[in-house]
Amino acid sequence: MTIKLKYFTNNKAHLMWALLLVLVVNSSAQINLVPNPSFEMHSIPCSSLTNSSSNVATSWISPVINSSSSYGYVNACASNICCGVPFNTFGRGFQYAHSGSGYVAFFAVVDDGFNVNFRNYLQSKLFMTLQANKCYYIEYFINLSNAYLLGCNNVGLLVGDTGIISNKSKYVSASPQILQFGNPVIIDTMNWVKIAGIYKAHGGEQYITIGNFKDDLHTDTIFIQKAGNSGASYYLDDVSVIPLDSMQLKAEAGRDTTIVKGDSVWIGSRLCGLTNVVWYDAANNVIDTGAPGLWVKPTSNTFYVIEQDVCGQYSRDTVYVAVVPLPVSMLNFECLMFNERQVKVSWQTATEINVSHFNVQSSTNGVNFNSIGKVNAKGASKYSFIDNTNFSGVVYYRLEVVDKNGSKTYSEIRDISIGNNKEIKVFPNPTRGDVNVQLPTAGNWQIITSDIAGRVVWKEEGSAGTIKHTLKGASGVYFIKVINKRTGMQSVHKVTLQ
User: Fold this and answer.
1) How far apart (Å, rounded) are the C-alpha atoms in residues 356 and 403?
2) Cα angle at 149 between 396 and 54, to 5 degrees?
3) Which residues, in sequence order, are bridge partners of residue 352?
4) CA distance linking residue 368 with residue 359, whole number of Å
5) Is residue 12 pLDDT above 60, yes or no?
6) pLDDT per residue as tens digits for the range 469-484
7) Which residues contact 498 (CB under 8 A, 6 or more apart)?
8) How far apart are CA 336 and CA 6, in angstroms?
């Protein structure tokens, strides 16, 4: 049985829930130790909600001194458009609550050149103090607001004996225990993203705080659009801290899936805090340990098994991966300057299976792509498309291959420098360890190298010339992202370590 009460908006109701908690804790029922977990309760009337309303969600504070900054609160009951659901001015977009009718908004990064290391935090005191050596399942959901330029990583949950205090809304240096595995940049503006993990208490913890606990220099960001407000702002909903002995945590191998031959797929979950985990392939070989999920690249139909033992709870799960033939066998794919303001995208196919057409797509950040043209398929042939662009800087291109049944696959990404910028080069590739990153003569550049699971293995900054680095780790694919810190332009290069 799960107890979850909502829509109470007064102190009497809050007290009633606390009394119910006492009753349920003495039973075997699952219970959430977080008060007002889905932000349904609020301290002021719906008609009084405004942009300047601070610390409105009952039992949740913004732990700030010497500043008036606070998290934002929105609810479907609000009469002011600033604070409604699904429309509100905090995100200038359309977003329903993950559950119920209310949620909150907070800044993880403000990249305007003035508010360096600016942060919003949300803090709550748990109903009960955590017990020593007891395990807890912790979960919360976030969603990137539509109105801001950036997405970022480092949005985490900190468990502590005492609450933190932020001076003048500046970042607090800490190591949150609950982060999405691999700590990727979260850029989903449509779906709520679950962040969850297992925490083993040392005893005495009674506060949770959510936000970005790293400074701007150690926070990765991605531009998600060309225009908008500076920074990264997230919505937050449904926060849970549940004693693990009151629930059953099952191993999660992921959904059965189908991929195109040559593609990779993520299996498992991104639950953090799992250590006693073993992955097996179909031949019962151990292929990974200590990770909730991993990238696999099978060449034929197969399955994988995860086996885990979390705080005495043992379970197994299996995921099946079907592999289908590549709809297109590509001989080459390249982008060349046709003249000063035209890019010629050309490709040649050796085979085509049930292909309807090709969508030529471009991007200014290598992440978010838009279709700029359509070329009908005609069997194994040579193709070309001219992009008349007004953009100056690095532009990325890829092909979206659309089958006659509507399914889609994608080519590799190619990038080209338009205007006065010189092309970024990464070589040799493949490599046995040494990698050279050749930077243009102008610009302030950041280089971030990550493995195929998204874990950052190297960071470096430079202004020009060639930067040398030795990749150390397991053989396989690595991604080197080169970022122009002034313009936000990014170049992503895939490197194979032999």
Assistant:
1) 5
2) 165
3) 328
4) 14
5) no
6) 888 888 888 888 887 7
7) 430, 431, 432, 475
8) 58
Residue 348 near residue 329, CB atoms below 8 Å: no
Q: Residues, the chain, total?
A: 498
Cis status, amide bond into 63, omega within 30 of 0: no
Report pTM: 0.69
> How is residue 54 written in tokens?
């601070």
Q: Which two tokens stand for residue 17?
A: 């829930």
Q: Are 382 and 348 in contact (CB under 8 A)?
A: yes
Hey, what are 438's tokens? 């050749």
Which amino acid, 132?
A: A
Fill in the amino acid letter for 249.
L
DSSP of 422-434, one letter per residue?
A: PPPEEESSSBSSE
Q: Of 408, 398, 403, 393, nearest to 372 (Cα)?
A: 398
Q: What is the dihedral of CA 418, 424, 429, 433, to 10 degrees?
A: -170
- Cβ proximity of 355 and 328 under 8 Å: yes
pLDDT of residue 423: 66
What is the structure's pLDDT at 388?
A: 85
For residue 218, give the DSSP letter. G
Q: What residues form DSSP beta bridges with 465?
A: 439
All residues at 6 or more sequence positions from 367 whose CB lies less than 8 Å from its CB, including other chains? 187, 222, 223, 224, 490
pLDDT-derived band of residue 293, with 50, 70 and 90 as boundaries?
very high
Evaluated on CA atoms 124, 274, 263, 468, the torsion sign reads positive
Do you find a cis peptide bond into 37, omega within 30 degrees of 0?
Answer: no
